[in-house]
Write a structure and sequence with these properties.
The chain is built from 9 helices and 22 strands. It has 374 residues and is α+β, with helices and mostly antiparallel strands. The protein folds into 2 domains: 225 residues, Rossmann fold (3-Layer(aba) Sandwich), CATH 3.40.50; 135 residues, OB fold (Dihydrolipoamide Acetyltransferase, E2P), CATH 2.40.50. The structure holds adenosine-5'-diphosphate and magnesium ion. Adenosine-5'-diphosphate (ADP) binds next to strand 2 and helix 1. Magnesium ion binds next to helix 1.
């Protein structure tokens, strides 16, 4: 059993609060992603789990062992660093064998050999064992770095943006391979990335981290469909979710939500408490939930087209909404031109409302409480 429990962990570097009361429960055998922008504290979190940083507060438990004060080498956790460092003057074989040769008590030569060959087989780098890193492609070098992590057969693997140095096609391939590998190994894996597509496509669950704080922990589809705040809402999905500022007025049995060009309403009973009365909210609408042109019935507003971007499988239409860009993702073949004014409708069964602090206060979840107002 190797679940990882992180309990109220805080770590500061001088003025910078790199981790701020982080608590996570990572399950045994789970592919767990930590997603966040550069500087969010992702690397610090991994370094804290493995023991290269000592938190000022909190506990780290691996399996049923509290390892908070245990030496990094004795935690049974293995890491692939962001800037993968292979020994340039050692062969691939020796790069893989090195972590094992360092171990105390020492491991028999034959055992090292079989573990190196096992890792090489799993990662399909057997033909490369005699080469040096300079003679490898980016993807091959990446595999060797992962191999160095595999040979030790730890309870928990930590991977810090292992694919960020690779080109797009190779990243795509390696994503699928890593996912497979983790399934086969059935080990707990914590994978750090700033790439939302990686996190969404690979993880069983993911954690969104911002400025050292956990914003949300959920399965990818939950993070996508029910983001807890505007930060999470705009972190997953491309193009990101549109946010439209609306003033809220309470009129007897009705709530009016308005911007200069958008007018929506709702029976107040349903929403008033969530929204917290009069004031302002942000309406969150994903680009795929914005209809444009003849398909936009009944329309909620008429907007000027700024740009049309055909992407092959779909078309992104940029629209001018109150002086800001609203992005719509439409099927290909849509007949709209820049500068044209077109009807636009939101799929109100899929919208979100966020309060002044950016916290989600309402998610439609398939049932439209909001309607257009004439
Ligand atoms: N050794 C260090 N000394 C000073 N500041 C650090 C150190 N390590 C990280 N930081 C700071 O802590 C914050 C989080 O860093 P990091 O964990 O590397 O973020 P991420 O991996 O998400 O990009 C950043 O502001 C970074 O500059
Ligand atoms: Mg980092």
């Amino acid at each position: 059993m190797a679940e990882v429990t992180i309990e109220g962990v805080s770590k500061r570097f001088g003025e910078i609060q790199a981790l701020d009361g982080v608590s996570l429960q990572i399950e045994d055998g789970e592919f767990f992603c930590v997603l966040g922008p550069p500087g969010a504290g992702k690397t610090t979190l991994l370094r804290t789990i493995i023991g290269l940083e000592q938190p000022e507060e909190g506990r780290i438990v691996v399996g049923d062992r509290d390892v908070t004060d245990v030496h990094p080498g004795s935690r049974d956790v293995s890491i692939v660093f962001q800037n993968l460092a292979l020994y340039p003057d050692k062969t691939v074989y020796d790069n893989l064998a090195f972590p094992l040769r360092q171990q105390k008590p020492s491991i028999a030569k034959s055992e090292i050999d079989s573990r190196v060959r096992d890792a090489a087989r799993i990662l399909r780098i057997e033909p490369l064992l005699r080469r040096r890193p300079a003679k490898l492609s980016g993807g091959e070098r990446q595999r060797v770095a992962i191999g160095r992590c595999l040979v030790r057969a730890p309870l928990v693997y930590l991977l810090d943006e292992p694919l960020s140095a690779l080109d797009a096609l190779l990243r795509l391939e390696m994503r699928a391979e890593l996912k497979h590998l983790q399934r086969d190994l059935k080990r707990t894996l914590v994978y750090v990335t700033h790439d939302q597509v990686e996190a969404m496509s690979m993880s069983d669950r993911l954690c969104v981290l911002d400025r050292g704080r956990v914003q949300q922990v959920d399965a990818p589809e939950v993070v996508y469909n029910r983001p807890t705040n505007t930060f999470v809402a705009r972190t997953v999905g491309t193009p990101p979710m549109n946010l439209v500022r609306l003033d809220v007025e309470v009129n007897d049995a009705r709530l009016d939500l308005r911007s200069p060009t958008v007018r929506l309403q709702a029976p107040s009973a349903g929403l008033l408490e969530a929204v917290g009365g009069a004031g302002a909210v942000e309406l969150g609408v994903r680009p795929e939930d914005v209809r444009v042109g003849s398909g936009a019935q009944p329309a909620h507003c008429e907007l000027r087209v700024i740009a049309v971007e055909p992407l092959g499988g779909e078309v992104i239409v940029d629209l001018d909404l109150d002086g800001r860009i609203l992005k719509a993702m439409t099927p290909p073949g849509i007949a709209v031109e820049p500068d044209e004014v077109v009807p636009v409708a939101f799929d109100l069964s899929r919208v979100h409302l966020f309060n002044g602090d950016g916290r989600a206060v309402y998610t439609a979840g398939g049932e439209a409480v909001l309607t257009g107002a004439g």
